[in-house]
Structure formats: C-alpha cells, structure tokens
Amino acid sequence: MQLPRPKAPAICFMSTMNIRRDFTRSRRLLSVSLVFLFLVFGATSCAPKTVPPSGSICADDLTWTVVRVIDGDSVLLASGSLELSCRLEGIDAPELSQPFGIPARNYLECLLSEQSVTAHFRGRDSYNRVLARLGTPSAADISCSMIQAGAAWHYAFFNSDAPLSAAHTAAQTARIGLWSDSEPVEPYLWRQGNR
User: Fold this and answer.
1) Is 95 a catalytic residue?
2) Could you tell me which of 50, 37, 42, 100 has the C-alpha nearest to residue 71?
3) Could you tell me the fold of the domain covering 59-193?
4) CB neighbours (10 Å) of residue 160?
5) Alpha-helical segments (H) within 38-161
6) Active site residue: 95, 105, 122, 133, which one?
C-alpha cells in the first residue's frame, strides 16, 4: 500500500522564487553596507600598528602580556587592544611534531607565565613575522634562556650574537635538553623532510 502524496504547499512556485531573490538581494545589500561602514568608521581603529625600527623598544614603552605561547619560538603578545604575533629572534626551537617540541613550548610557557614582558623589536623575518628579543623581570633574555636549557638551537644562519652562540655550545657540551638525544635534528631540516 502506498502512502498518499503530500498536498502542494500553499505558496506557488513563482512566489517562492521571488522570496529567494529578495532574500539574496537583501543579503548582498547588507554585505555592501557593512563593508562601507567599516571603511568609513572602523578602518582607523583597526589600522595595523607599525613595528618600531630594528633594535628599539616598542613606541611608548608598552608593557606586553603573553596571550598564548604558540610553540617554542613563537608567542602572541598583547598590550591594551594591540595584539602581536612574535617570533623570538636568534633561536630555532623544535617543531611541535618533533622530539623535544612540546617540552620546548612548555618551557617557554614556564619562562613567560604571569609576567610582564619587554620586547626589543628586530624587524621581520622572510615570512614577514615580527622578530623580537623578549625579557621578563626574572629572565633578561628569553632567547638565551631557551638555548641554555637545551630547548632551542642558536639560529646562527640569521643571527651572529656571541652570547647565544656561547650558550648553544655550553648546552651542547653538557648534553642538556635536546642535546641529550644522540642525533638531534635541527628544526629547519625537520621542516624540509616533513612537509
């Protein structure tokens, strides 16, 4: 036995098409209006803040807080309404999927947790990320602290800082952190082999 067919809807097909067309037109008009309002009123408040020149402290001596530690050499900083994704200058920490990657991130979280951060901006890297040397009241140079703990390599290809190089050699000689592995793989080599 077959079930009876449902009755036709009360609205005819043509009026349904008109409703859809009017709805689509309204959505388009709303989208254009929102873009216009943003351009007129919101563009100045959302304009990107510029990064200070290389080597200088951020304009107005902003105090930064850490919003999130992304990995062993990248953090998200905030000061007031300004948020800035930042790469620690002078180091290359293991990728999260790499051995010692998660411990490196956890150590960086420990160094930065619940402290105000100073940032000495050093420009941008080849991926246009902001490079900075960070410091806290308990650790004057976070990059150096990461290397001393064996949580990162000195990124000597892009940085010739003697204290970072010395910290790298000392951690490697003492087999601290990632140096306890018999054959640690530098992150840039890991990235090449795992893309």
Assistant:
1) yes
2) 100
3) OB fold (Dihydrolipoamide Acetyltransferase, E2P) (2.40.50)
4) 10
5) 101-112, 142-148
6) 95
